[in-house]
């Protein structure tokens, strides 16, 4: 995650990635696929990427990949297009909406399993860690910023991740449920 942070901290990189995400969304309507700009060439690290689309401060789409075999710019473009058109919670974005959206990008570090058998206190860093809960065919993922936006503590964050997975409250405490955390760079 450290190399990724250093690459993303280069001047202009974060803004160029956000602009690339918007151009990828705009390309849905123009038929043009944006070129990766020069200041992002060489950003070849592979990591998970999510793009969150908001319109007037309200969620309008959020899709991404836990892991990707694409470079960061390409993963961001694909996540942006999917967020605009494939999030089942929302109708596809329209061409008229593109000028009114804000995009937020989250780059994901490698997930690591948490042992929650003895509790969770001190194991989840609110605002830094995202969570994944898996049980049987059910899986839910929440990005790090969700806990901050809703004022969740560690347990509330886990419960919300269970809910996202379609699991009942407290499912994370049951044997057979797996809990993972990952670091996220949000910008």
What does this structure look like?
By secondary structure, the chain is an alpha+beta fold. It has 2 domains: 2-108, Hypothetical protein ph0010, domain 1 (Glycoprotein, Type 4 Pilin, 2-Layer Sandwich), CATH 3.30.700.20; 112-186, Dna Ligase, domain 1, CATH 3.30.1490. 32% of the residues lie in helices and 26% in strands. The protein contains 5 helices and 7 strands. It has helices at 2-9, 13-30, 72-85, 144-150, 154-165; strands spanning 48-55, 58-65, 101-108, 112-114, 129-135, 138-142, 178-186. Strands 1, 2, 3, 4, 5, 6 and 7 form a 7-stranded antiparallel beta sheet that branches. The model has no long low-confidence stretch (mean pLDDT 94).
Mass-distribution shape: globular
Number of helices: 5
Structural class category? alpha+beta
Q: What does the main sheet amount to?
A: 7 strands, antiparallel
Please tell me the overall pLDDT: 94
CATH topology of the largest domain: Glycoprotein, Type 4 Pilin
Distance between the termini: 15 Å
What fraction, in percent, of the residue positions are helical?
25-40%
- H/E topology pattern: HHEEHEEEEHHE
CATH class of the largest domain: Alpha Beta
Q: pLDDT under 50 segments (min length 5)?
A: none
Tell me how many strands there are: 7
- Name given to the CATH homologous superfamily of the largest domain: Hypothetical protein ph0010, domain 1
What is the domain tally? 2
Which CATH architecture of the largest domain is right? 2-Layer Sandwich
Rg, please? Answer: 17 Å
Strand content: 25-35%
Topology at a glance:
Blueprint: H1 2-9, H2 13-30, E1 48-55, E2 58-65, H3 72-85, E3 101-108, E4 112-114, E5 129-135, E6 138-142, H4 144-150, H5 154-165, E7 178-186
Helix pairs in contact: 2-3
């Amino acid at each position: 995650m450290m190399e990724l942070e250093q690459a993303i901290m280069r001047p202009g990189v974060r803004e160029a990635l956000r602009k690339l995400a918007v151009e990828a969304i705009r390309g849905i309507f123009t038929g043009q696929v944006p070129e990766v700009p020069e200041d992002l060439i060489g950003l070849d690290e592979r990591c998970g990427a999510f793009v969150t689309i908001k319109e007037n401060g309200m969620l309008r789409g959020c899709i991404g990949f836990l892991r990707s075999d694409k470079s960061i710019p390409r993963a961001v473009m694909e996540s942006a297009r999917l967020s605009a058109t494939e999030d089942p919670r929302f109708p596809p974005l329209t061409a008229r909406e593109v000028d009114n959206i804000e995009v937020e990008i989250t780059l994901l570090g490698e997930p690591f399993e948490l042992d929650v058998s003895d509790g969770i206190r001190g194991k989840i860093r609110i605002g830094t860690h995202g969570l994944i809960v898996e049980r049987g065919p059910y899986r839910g993922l929440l990005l790090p910023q969700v806990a901050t936006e809703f004022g969740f503590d560690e347990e509330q964050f886990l419960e919300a991740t269970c809910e996202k997975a379609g699991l009942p409250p407290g499912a994370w405490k049951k044997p057979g449920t797996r809990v993972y955390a990952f670091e996220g760079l949000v910008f």
